[in-house]
């Protein structure tokens, strides 16, 4: 009899957990292990005694987990429709300049200036489309230059964050909140999430493959049918790991548990 635990299943994520997952008739699963399989849509297949050991450990012929492309986000601003008009003029609409990796998102032609108590940054790109609340995403290094010490937050989680002055060609706004250092995250479609064996809100551990190995230990999993696979970091994080847009990282663990071989070189 084997007791299958959640930790054992997580350790198998590197090679991919087969679906259905085979156990022997006498094997037992912990409740957490059952939840783990259920939440990932993996069914159980109970083998009769005497089937091969290969079926039981389940890793024969399972596909290798793909690498995850990196997208580096420079400082940028998301604007509410009202703030677009305040900065660029009445009735103004943003003009898409370049598509971003996530469907429907674009870098706009428009740029603004950011002002903090210690300094200013000019030519900061606006991302579209306009959204509910204005949000400024800067790196920690930008924060030192501006004199604004913003917390690490996921997009949209703005309560209690600092404000700043924004300036466009037609006006200025004094934001009272909305400045963050973006928390790194991975975008995945539901299908891609199944490939990696993760659910929404899980934390991936991702390692770089270049000359300066770095592990990002707490990367939030974000899943949506419109998402495509991309690991989003800011410029400070990218520079620390010698990463640039288009590089790739590898899954080294999930929710604080390293996969077997997670620290081995590429
Ligand atoms: Zn993102």
Task: Give a verbal description of the structure.
It comes from Ferviditalea candida. The structure is a single chain. The protein is an alpha/beta fold. The protein is 18% helix and 35% strand. It has 7 helices and 20 strands. 30% of the residues are buried. Mean pLDDT is 89; it is low at 50-62. The structure holds zinc ion. The site of zinc ion has 3 residues, from β15. Zinc ion binds at residues 185, 187, 232.
In terms of DSSP E residues, the strand content is 35-45%
Estimate the mean pLDDT confidence.
89
Instruction: Specify the helix fraction band.
Output: 10-25%
In DSSP terms (H or I, runs of 4 or more residues), the helix count works out at 7
**How do the SSEs run, as a string of H and E?**
EHEEHEHEEHEEEEHEEEEEHEEEHEE
Sketch the major β-sheet.
9 strands, mixed
Ends: how far apart?
Answer: 36 Å
Ligands bound to this protein structure: zinc ion
Number of separate strands: 20
Poorly predicted tracts of residues: 50-62
Q: Strand pairing plus helix content: what structural class?
A: alpha/beta
Molecular shape: elongated
Q: Radius of gyration from the CA trace?
A: 22 Å
């Amino acid at each position: 009899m084997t007791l299958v635990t959640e930790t054992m299943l997580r350790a198998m994520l590197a090679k991919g957990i087969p679906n259905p997952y085979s156990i022997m008739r006498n094997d037992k699963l912990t409740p957490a292990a059952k939840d783990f399989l259920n939440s990932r849509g993996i069914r159980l297949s109970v083998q009769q005694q005497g089937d091969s050991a290969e079926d039981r450990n389940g890793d024969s012929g399972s596909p290798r987990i793909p690498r995850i492309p990196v997208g580096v986000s420079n400082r940028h601003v998301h604007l509410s429709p009202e703030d677009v008009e305040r900065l660029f003029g009445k009735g103004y609409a943003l003009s898409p300049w370049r598509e971003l990796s996530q469907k429907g998102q674009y870098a706009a032609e428009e740029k603004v200036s950011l002002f903090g108590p210690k300094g200013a940054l000019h030519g900061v790109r606006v991302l579209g489309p306009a959204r509910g609340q204005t949000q400024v995403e800067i790196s920690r290094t930008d924060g030192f230059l501006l004199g604004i010490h913003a917390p690490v937050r996921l997009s949209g989680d703005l309560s209690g964050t600092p404000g700043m002055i924004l300036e466009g060609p037609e006006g200025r706004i004094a934001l009272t909140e909305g400045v963050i250092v973006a928390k790194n995250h991975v975008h995945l479609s539901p299908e891609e999430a199944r490939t990696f064996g993760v659910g929404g809100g899980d934390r991936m551990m991702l390692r770089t493959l270049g000359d300066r190995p770095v592990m990002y230990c707490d990367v939030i999993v974000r899943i949506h049918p419109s998402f495509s696979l991309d690991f989003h970091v800011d410029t400070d994080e990218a520079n620390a790991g010698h990463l640039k847009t288009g590089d790739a990282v590898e899954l080294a663990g999930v929710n604080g548990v390293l996969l077997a071989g997670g620290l081995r070189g590429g």
